[in-house]
Amino acid sequence: MKVPGRRTIYIAGGILLLLIVVYFGFVRSDAVTVEMGSVSRGEMMSTIDAEGRVRYHERFIVTAPISGKMYRIQLHEGDRVPKGYVLTRIDPSPPRPTDPTRAPEPNVYAYAYNVYVPENGILTKIFVQSEGMVQAGAQLAEVSKPSQLEVVADILSTDAAKARPHMRVLVENWGGNGTLEAKIRTIEPQAFTKVSSLGVEEQRVNVIADFVSPPSNVGDNYKADIRIVLWEGKDVLRVPMSALFKTGDDWQVFVVSGSKARTRTVQIGQRSTSYAEVVSGLEEGDTVVLYPPKDLTDGSRVKSN
After folding, report:
1. Is residue 48 within 8 Å of residue 205, measured between CB atoms?
2. 131-135 long-range contacts, Cβ below 8 Å, gap at least 24?
3. Residue 305 burial (10 A CB sphere; 0-12, 13-18, 19+)
């Protein structure tokens, strides 16, 4: 048997090296760099998210009982006031006759009307602070009872149709640690028009929820984010939402098999901002392409970034 010469071995080695360079330089270079994720089991929650605010549940508006000259309100917003406290006095216009049998009070006219605080509470708003003329029925101040807090948020009317009383509400970013629990008390029956930050007119509805355990360090009109829980599951087969794309009416994903991406049609159920429930088409542990690039097609080579 003839042993290959050294020259032949060098030539064969060079050809092999050239093939390796060609393979990695041209064949392997067409692999698309992608981000990958996996199909997993875990908790999942479908929610309506909105920006809300905390407020006192019980509010009382103090109004002027008559037209006339109102004396300056000496208190300030945030002051606590007892029921029956004289908030201010109003001299009628025109003045009523003085009662000769009544001793005049110090520094006020004998015929002034007292304006009383209707309930124990906090003076949350003063509409008319300074002395001056007011009309009968004019709003003078607002008194709120801090014993019951609620959270209110306006949501799209299309979302409001999905909400129901007693649904669970998660209150986040309220200024303290952790997430607070609340339950929907009411969905207001009438929608109103609101212009979004993009200048689009939207029909929105107020949803009001009561805290399960009201926080002690939150006051009236404090900002908070809410999540109305429409559905939740503990052991759900789920795929990242960023892996899904639509082809016609079908939801599809790219499943990574070996080094190639294969298109697969899937059925999904509930959705959240992060995940979609897998009804069929995927199994736990499947690797999928996240944020599929436009140049990715069925059978394309892929590599992880």
Report:
1. no
2. 131/69, 131/70, 131/71, 131/72, 132/69, 132/70, 133/67, 133/68, 133/69, 133/70, 133/93, 134/64, 134/67, 134/68, 134/69, 134/70, 134/90, 135/64, 135/67
3. exposed
Residue 176 DSSP class: S
What pTM, to 2 d.p., does this model score? Answer: 0.69
Dist CA 172 CA 186 (whole Å): 20
Specify which residues 51 forms β-bridges with. Answer: 225
Kind of pairing between the strands at 32-38 and 302-304: parallel
Q: What is the DSSP letter of 301?
A: B
d(CA 73, CA 125): 12
List 288's β-bridge partners, or say none.
37, 255
CA-based nearest residue to 228, from 50, 88, 4: 50
Per-residue pLDDT tens digits for 71-110: 999 999 989 999 999 999 999 876 655 555 555 555 555 6
Helix residue spans in the chain (DSSP H): 6-22, 157-160
Separation CA 222–CA 151 (nearest Å)? 9
Q: What is the pLDDT of residues 210-252, one digit of tens each?
A: 999 888 788 888 999 999 999 999 999 999 999 999 999 999 9
Greatest CA separation for the chain: 144
Determine the Cα–Cα distance for residues 162 and 17; give it in Å rounded to an integer: 65
If residue 210 lies in a helix (H) or strand (E), which one and from where to where? strand 201-211
**Nearest C-alpha neighbor of 134 from the set 93, 184, 177, 179:** 93
Tokens standing for residue 230: 């429409």
Q: How far apart, in whole angstroms, are the C-alpha atoms of residue 54 and residue 45?
A: 24
Q: In whole angstroms, give the CA distance from residue 129 to residue 139.
A: 11
